[in-house]
Amino acid sequence: MKKVHNIYKSKKLIKVSLEYDEHSKIISSITITGDFFLYPEETLDALEFNLIGIKLEKDSIKQKVEKCLSGSEAFGFDSESMTDAILGCLKPKQD
Amino acid sequence: MSFKFSKIRILESGYDSGPWNMALDEVLMGSANYDIPILRLYGWQPPAVSIGYFQSMDEEVDVKKCKQMGIDVVRRITGGGAVLHESELTYSFITKVYPRNILKSYNLICDPVVMCINKLGFNAKFAPLNDITIDNKKVSGNAQTRKKNILLQHGTILLDINVEKMFSVLKISSEKIKDKMINDVKARVMGLNKTFEQVAYELKESFSEKFVAEIIVDNLTLEERENTRNLANEKYTSDSWNWKKK
Fold first, then answer.
1. Please, what is the angle between helix B196-210 and helix B102-119, to 10°?
2. What is the average per-residue pLDDT within A64-80?
3. Which one of A55, B25, B99, B204 is CB 3.0 to 4.6 Å from B104, fit for a cystine?
4. What's the whole-model pTM score?
5. How far is B120 from chain A (nearest CA, A)?
6. Which residues of A touch B102 (CB under 8 A)?
7. How far apart are CA B167 and CA B62, in angstroms?
8. ipTM of the complex
9. Domains delineated in chain B
10. In CATH, A2-90 is 3.30.390.10
């Protein structure tokens, strides 16, 4: 299992910490934090819950994010930037 | 659609701790009357850092430094960023009647705050989604939540700002950018340099004018006080709440 994190600057900051299986790329845990607004607030808990067991690759993440955010209102990010924030965990970090 | 109320219940609850202040906001969401919204004006003693609902305390705040400096830490029920509450007037507006559109509701409730600041001699503007600025300098930040069809919007009106103190308790990832950010913030944020009482007076007048409402100055009920004490102890001082996002 590999632990990774990413800080993504959309209109607001999105910070993602997740753990995934390097072989299968399946997410086993994920925490999303930031200074954004999301209504209703419980949407974020649902998004984190529904991302567990999902493959850390673009189409799978994008589909899940779009589904979870539909019906909610976000300020400071959108589905695309949230997807990018999560996928950004895979990018090698520069010191 | 215009929004008018016959009355607004005004609570000037004084200076209290971070947990108490946040608990009282939540308790008052249960007190809201359909016809009569609540406007609460308050301060923070001791100073406190509040983080947004979606933030992680350990990511955002140097909790050890806060403890050394006698600064409370608390997580809000509203989103947004980390804030050092010290030299400011904080308001909370609680209502059952509000625009469903989120941007419109922020605009509506920020309007009397803008009016208040302008009555004090400034040229303030609403800066969507949730800021109020004077010549592009932020003087007020606001945050909103909705629970069971009741809206709480609370916000700060800065009287003064100590940027070095703010950066000493908020975590910045690199010392390299800290100096730059301190200078940046000093250029982009300002305090009114007015007293709490001056701002409070104009804020009450502005809400009355905006919503064509009679101001009813009131006190907390015994039940509200008791509920606040319990909620502050059970929730807003608990690690399970404040450190919920790890």
1. 130
2. 95
3. B99
4. 0.94
5. 30
6. 39, 73, 75
7. 10
8. 0.94
9. 7-241 (3.30.930.10)
10. no
